[in-house]
## 1
Amino acid sequence: MKNVQSVLIANRGEIAVRIIRSAKVLGLRTIAVYSEADAAAPHVKLAEDSVCIGPPPVSESYLCVASILEAAARTGAQAIHPGYGFLSENAAFAEACAKAGLVFVGPGVEAIRLMGDKAAAKTKMIEAGVPCVPGYQGDDQSDAALMAAADQIGFPVMVKATMGGGGRGIRLVNSASELSDALATARSEARNSFGDDALIIEKAVIAPRHVEIQVFADAHGNVIHLGERDCSVQRRHQKVVEEAPGPAVSPALRSAMGAAAVEAARSIAYRGAGTVEFLLDAQSNFYFLEMNTRLQVEHPITEMVTGLDLVAMQFRVADGQPLGITQDDVRFNGHAIEVRLYAEDPAHGFLPATGRVEDWAVPPIEGVRVDSGIEAGQSITPFYDPMIAKIIAHAPNRDEACVKLVSALKQTRFFGLPSNLGFLIDILQRPAFLDGAATTAFIGDEYRAGYTPPPVTADIYVMGAVLEFLDGRDHALARTIEPMNELLGWSSGSPITSYIAFGNSKAVHKFAVRSVDMDQLEVTEGAQRYVCSVIRRTAGEVTLRLDGVKRVLLVRRIGEWDLHISEMGQIYRLQRHRAGGQAESLGGDGRILAPMHGVLIEMRVAKGDRVEIDDKLAVIEAMKMQHEIRAPLSGVVSAVLKTAGHQVVDKALLIEITPDQAA
């Protein structure tokens, strides 16, 4: 590097860690910024220097331009890398960096401003000859104008925030009757996330593939593309699985899409890394969706199939150096698939989860890469996106990459709070995905009733009883002086039986466990009898043979009463039964609880109101998304405990409803 020797990373989490690693390889001094909630985060420990920039809320820390520029000045930073999210596509921030004499590791201000405005970007792409979806991107933002445009375009349509990204401010509208609510919600999300509530309307391309092209340009007029990524597997417009190359992209189609993406970048004098996103229909027609003027979350799969370090390339281009490669130099090797591991609860509509990460590790497997900004002992807070890590597998072909990724996920340890780990494994094993047939409708089609994690089966309870027995025996042995193995579990009369129960006030599973010998146990539940032997046992992993079948379990005890077991990537929580323990209310008794930490931005009911099943009761905003709370029963509102505008904690009582049957 000639002109830049130090860089401040204006971001957090896994992308901050990722940027720091490449910066260090280039010999750059790295400076991290952090909020008070992130003081002990990995990216802070990894950087040579770090500066606290404010309280946990993003508006007071990671979105505070003044605090970030002050941190750069205090530490002598020469450049700022914005990562993705937060200020990465904020033209005013890029402009402020330039005025402060800082190199902004990203495109020029005008390119950011133009492509950040979906309406202006689409107009520019039409002028450049890039195929675009029919739609409305006019200045008249009244409901009447948007509704008239939607009628003219024809339903279904997509409502999109002009400054949107990350799935926020986007709604699919199937009919005119849904449009008013969709406009209001999209505007609210856009205003809260981007500070701009302007919208565009586009014809909805039903069940397309989402295919994006990675482009790179330097300040010397060189523009190339690095192939495509298929990001079709999405939930609520948030990408869940990405792969490269795309299973539906032929060499000829890659060439055509690549040429269009290069022209898109060239037409706006682009510089640095960017992604041109397209919708691809069943007839291989592609349409411009948007351009992200930053590094993408899913950039690792491009790195793995091209062998290029995109972050290092960003630094070199920002330093004024040429790309150093031409389009003919770009080679694609094998196949890469990435999944995003989130702290969210699939059993309850994928609500974001918060809490302490008790244990977290992915086994070292050749060809498997893990990009993470979290470590065991750290907490997932309600202030930031709940993504924990990206897990990526690379292999000579798609089938092998998929098998390798599934194997890695099944061996992953993640204990302490809910995650989508089991859901990811399920996706990768679905025939439609394995056949390369997934479109943006994949999750909706495959999981019409949502995703329900497998229940705790009898054998899981039995193995849990065995683990509890073994832990209890170890505890006793630690307080005994050199006992003889042949006397363990025996008394003068008969083998000693231990009684173990799991459950809550709704259901209790009671087991009797006794030693047959040092490594073999007999477990009974009522008239059912099981024989279990211990093959291997360490602090976090146990291999058992239950009724002749070998079982490998990852285990973690959390607190005094919770035993967490992971088998083949499915994580089960077993609670030791306590007399008088209460089951958590999910609203069936009329007590409506907050499903997560967040800000209550709307309360739709008042005391005395009558509600029917599925009526919208309230809206909570958490982790940059709005989550509706709907009535689980019919009845009359007897109490409203919280008002709009207040921060609420997870499981806070919001509303009480007197059910019809109790009236």
## 2
Amino acid sequence: MVERESELVGQGERLRAAESEPGQPRLYEREAAILAARQAIDTLCREFTAGGIELGSLLLYSGRAGLGKTSMLQQVRMLAGQQGGCTVLSARAGELRTKEPFYVLRQLLLPELLKLSPEEQREVFGPWREIAGPAVGLIAPSGEDLDPQSVRIGLEYLVTQLARLRAPLVMLVDDVHWADQESFGWLESFAERCPELPVLLAIAWRTDELPAETHAFRRLVATNSHRHLEFQGLLPAPIEKMVRAAFPDTAEDAFCRQVWAVTGGNPYLTQALLAKVRERGIEPIYENVPLLHDLAAEAQGMTRELWLQKLGVNTLNLAHAAAMLGTQISPRVAARIAGMAPGAAEEAISELRRHQVLTGPADGPLEFVHPLIATSLYRSIRPGMRTAMHGKAAVELENAGRPLVESSRHLLETHGENDPQVVAKLRQAAREHLAVGAPAAAVRCLERALNEPPEDEDRAQVIYELGCSTLLTDPVSTVNQLRLALETPGLRREQRVDATFRLSEVLAHSGRLVEATEVTLAEAARTEPGPGRVRLEVAHFMWAAFQREERDGPARSARLAAFSAELTGDDINARAARVLRAWDLTLQGADATEALALLDSALEDGRLPKGLGWTSTTWGLELPAIVGLTFVYTDHLDRAEKLFEEAIRAFELAGWVGGHLGFAYFLMGLVRFRRGALAEAEEFLRGALRIARRLGPGLPLQWDAVGVLADTLLARGRTEEAWKLAADYGFAPPYHPTAMVLPDAPTLYGKLLLAQGDREAAVTALETVGAQLDERGWHNTIWAPWVGNLAQALQPRDPLRAGELAAEGLRRARTFGVESAVGTALRTAAAVADGQSALELLTLAVRELGRSPVGYEHAFALVELGAALRRAGRLAEATEQLHQGMELEVECNADGLVARAREELKASGLRPNRLRTTGKEALSQAEWQVAEMTVQGNSALEIAEQLEMPLSLINRRLAAVHRKTGTNREGLAAALGLPGEEPRKP
């Protein structure tokens, strides 16, 4: 790919050298613009030399065609060259290159990138080489579809590093109104960041010709209005100077005034009109003033007949071929399009240069002297001939070794002729567009392929490819095209399965979970037995697991259990089914041991098997997320953290920095929240929320992030901020219409109400959600702790029912068998109990939570126990618990709990200790000792007996071990890297 682009680089170098030569047209009435440009360049160079970095500025030029914008950019180039030390990059969009993705960007960056050494290239690309490299033409695409948002971010990184390496940098972009969609989008984003870099960015465009959708660019111009100069027509005096320069001895005043009148002061049109006056041999006197109007019309837009009179047949044919190519014109390719021999083509090019139609070196690349000439020539081609010439141009560009992404723009302008080769080329071009992150260009190619049309047996496949091309950018179009592909005969069995799964995936990611479950179930019923059918059945169960509501939850769980039991092998579908079964058991609150055993059988040596990775196109991110969520809610937080770290790395390396990365941030925020690292959790969750806002409102990711972030703020003691966050994002009934929020949204909302002191509303909300979850068979007290929250809400007015609910919550937690669930349920039961009973429950809660990795819950229980002991007059014991709780609270950044612990300690007459660090490396020698003995299979009582220490001290050390390593007893060996034995019953 680099070899193919080297020709473009060399041609661009020669063209820019030609542009900087003397003899350029004089700029009349542009003194202020030239002065502003000179000052901007002087400031950039002076302050950069003085050590400045954030020096960037914009120069914005607009106006009608022919008013001198291009000449102004050439003037900026000349001023930068005179200054010395500047790196100048330039690009010019073309009217006929708007459908060639990244065309402008390649012109701008590739010449300079090819000058870099391999070490410098590695520096400017960083981790984004495989993402941004294909877009700029430096490396060949990998063949995998790239996320346009990722490509945009990669390009921003690339240009940022290039700007710093080659600073000070002057970037010129002409005729930006014709820029391809991909380059324009990048330019909008980069222009906003320009002030952060040592870059002067100068942009020119035609007034009223910007595409309608360029809202961000229009806002940018409005914001930088002091840098925006809109060129107007010249006054009569400069036009008179131009006329007298052309006719120094004979031009009369009346003739000069009429030239200004018929051209509107347009300098380019004035020069073209004066050229025609010379061609016709017309004297510039008063008697010939009536001729100027028609001559001006000819100069502005010549017809085919006028061009023919001016150039002759052969020369006009070559000019038309050049107009087909638009910019960066290869003389050899233009000659072949025109069907001319090399010698005749050379003569025609020489004639076009003499008539000031083309400019540039004889061996190319050639450029039109002005875009208006190219437009005039292109429009002078008869429509039928124009279409045929586009077809010829596509062929000749391909024969010349140019990539399909370049020749395909010509195929888009041809008529369908039932040509299978054209269909194949357009499909291949679409794949290449997707591989550089240009799905809009791929869509154009595939839509044109359908109009060819393709053979009957290929039509469904092309429709399917069209649906997949919009997967990351247009969910509605994707759904429509994939449905049509499935309805069209011709898809092979495996393609039908894949099309159905992709359809269900985009439906689910759009929040249409019910449709996703229905479409997979219906297609599974039509599919013959085999791996494809099993994949669809697994997908059906997967999407059902994420539905907000379900009519037959227990029945669906039973079907899933039977389905999973039937798949006894270790193929990817069987593993996926076991993952879903483990998650279903977790939501039911069944014995966690069974769920974890299923997960271990689904993984390979504790890692995701091939085919279930985060970036797998077979299954997507849902199944590995379910694995991690099961670990989260069974106290294996260390395994969940590792898994979610893998997700973040995988998405960043793949360039999936949109919803995928946002979901990974959410998952990491969730596990950090469970672990008690509240400040870190808040950071990850806010990152997820930022991405969710960028993607648009109402997506499940936004609900997920807001819910856990609000819970995190409550834990940190920022109740009002949590409530405001929920209100700002509408986190209240009816929630998302179809998708389940992670964790349970109604329970979180009831908790918010309870924190606000609105017990009546909290009771109503929690009773409603409790009935719904019980009907569904979901009794997990960590996922949805509605029972405990409802007990606390009811305690003041109905203590008997509150006690019954607390007891039910404890029963459910013990059935689940996870220490954090049991410990939290014990603490909740203590909150609705009195006296010695509450004290005993809190003692048990601290012991259970000390065996788990959930730092905040443990800290909460310690403070509650310390407070209860103080109220019972047992100050020495209270102080011990409060000190330990205080340390842990500070570690967790639980500011509200810290304040409460301080008050309790103050009431005891003591000061809090300093906190200690966390992590495996933070274990003290004494903690390592009890950790090793625990891994060897000893119980806490056995360790206490062997070390001849109090059991309470051993339990405190074990609690610190679990908290710092982020795992429970079963996961301790793996977390510490020690060989473990099965723990013995005490």
## 3
Amino acid sequence: MITSLSIKNYALIEKLAIDFSKGFSIITGETGAGKSIILGAMGLVLGRRADLTSLKNKEEKCVIEAYFDISKYNLKSFFEANDLDYEDETIIRREILPSGKSRAFINDSPVNLQELQDLSLFLIDIHSQQQTQELSNEGVQFKIIDAIANDQQEIANYQTLLKSYKEDKSNLNLLLKKQAESIKEQEYNTFLLNELVAAQLKSGEQEQLEADFEKLNNVETIKEAVDKSLALANEEQIGALSTLKEIKIALQKIASFAPEYASLSERITSLVIELDDISDELTNCSEKLINDPEQLDLISQKLQLIFNLQKKHQVTTVDELLAIQTNLENTLFELGNLESDIATLTQSIQDKTSQLDALALVIHEKRTKAVPVLSDKLISILATLGMPNVRFTIEIKAADNYYQNGKDEIQFLFSANKGTDFGLLKKVASGGEMSRIMLAVKAILAQYSKLPTLIFDEIDTGVSGEIAIRMGEIMKEMSQTMQIFAITHLPQIAAKGNAHFKVFKSTVGEDTQSELQLLNEEERVLEIAQMLSGAVVSDSALNHAKSLLN
């Protein structure tokens, strides 16, 4: 529950500090006195966005601080999850700086607005006239029926599963798209791969083939040169080898006479050995040289195949062709993996579909059982609020679609009088009827929810007299288990409160300010009398006010 509220430099409020008690509190005041300002300040504490128009004095910051007693509301886990210091008396502070920037704090720890909004869901529900119209919204209607059905755990499990189901569906669509694109390319990729595999390419092969081609293509020229070299080297009388050997013998005879002759002898000996070795290799080359047109043709064909493949794939080496071959093999392998992944995801989606359907059925059955409970309670409360012939038909139909809270669709059909047809709430219910229905809904939900504080902002629109008295009694009954505030213009409701606050404007010099005051017993009698008769209070109005209070 909220225990106190302080406001500084906000709208028409220069400075305000007020304490609140548990039970049923009333807030009254003339139209325009500043009741909406109080609600606006509370809205900022609960995480509503702010702007510079909130500042009374544009040169100073606005500070709004609210104290909450949360000792009985099991919120420690929320504080732990958000890394916040837990205190039984929790303080929420909002600051709006002249620069336009806004800051928020929970127990002096800075937080963002989302964290503040998340916490506010456990603290205060401000019911406005706009919320009354939201009663026609399907989402709100489901929240009402689900509170009575006590299916929150099933819905939470359903939502977790639904998120996973949607992720699987999204991933499956991506894989199917990728598969469709791959299938289009599969035939061509397979052709390219088969062409490369058939070529039986090897790293370094092109260079070897080109060398062999040059040999075979010039075999006669090569043989002629080799044979001529052999003849010049090995001619018995004038061959180079024979001449070198004679020089070698001559130098060996004088090698011992001087070091330089020995050196020359060693060098000529090396030349003889080298030329002899060259002669042997030339002999081997000559023996291997064969004019083989068929082999030349085969090598030419293989080189042409390699050149054609390089041109097709826009590369210049066999190694690059082999890399393309490997990539094509991987691509076709991935296509096989895609089929496996698609099969796995498809099975997962089928399994989750069955689980979602099972959960949705449990939710549907719980909601169906809650319908007569809600309908009977609404009819019972509304009968005391001057609607004795009201009837409800709450239709919950199972659909094929997976919605965020199940597979159901809901319709609240309403008839206020005997002999009238059922119709949708938003089409057939008047403003006064909607206000009473909403109060009845809140009274019912108070039995099932654990909301600490509920603020009714002029829920009495369109009612008066005995109906207003009964509305006040219902709110007072609700205040036995939760803190209730009612902003009202009706004296019948105002008289039911445990505490009564008045919002009024005052003028200080040239400045107009809004203030909030807790009324004592005499001031409260006078305020209710003024609500009954206006500014001029008659004795009968005072007596009526006392009667209402008693």
